[in-house]
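for the record, two folds in this file. i put them one after another cuz i was lazy. first one right below, seq on top, structure tokens after. the second one comes after a little note so u can tell where it starts
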Amino acid sequence: MKTISVHELKKRKEAGDTFFLLDVREYHEYLVSNIDGHHIPYNDLESRLGEIDEYKDKDVVVMCRSGNTSKDAAKILINSGFETVFSLEGGMKKWVKEIDPSLPVI
């Protein structure tokens, strides 16, 4: 499985690169702070894969709170035919710590 650092993700966002950001945190976590990813909670991912089928041939970056659940979610995507899937190292906690400390994290 591939991973991406928060710094590399920031560069890709700033450059306007084409990728799909999937946030698999719980709904209440997403409401507190997010970085504009498409939100599907991890527990709903398998039943909602149809919502994101159009991104199977795009780079997909999966993020969670600390980087563990996103790895499991990435495996689900890969097993469902998504071609290029990255897990965000350290998740939202690392994003806040190293990129944007103005965002709250729960």
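(here's the note) second protein begins now
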Amino acid sequence: MLKRHLLLALGVALTCSSANAAEGNAEAAKGKISMCIGCHGIPGYRTSFPEVYPVPKLGGQHPEYIVRALQAYKSGARSHPTMRGIAGGLSDQDMADLAAYYGGGK
């Protein structure tokens, strides 16, 4: 019974968070992607700050994942300094637009 209530609560929470999410516009994102393509638009690119690691491909990622990742950078839950600086200047609509653009496989 408890398991059923937890699943119901999770479903309600996800529905509420989805209802409050901004609707992304892939076309509007075309004017916002310049901050992304310098790293994420180079196949096989590896960054060297703050440490060396491969930069993930954004095209084809789930839009919800992209929004959540950007929100985590903005809040400080994810700590990459460059991404935190970029995400800090994004509105919820900007995040939704970028997610719609890259979620479409760009």
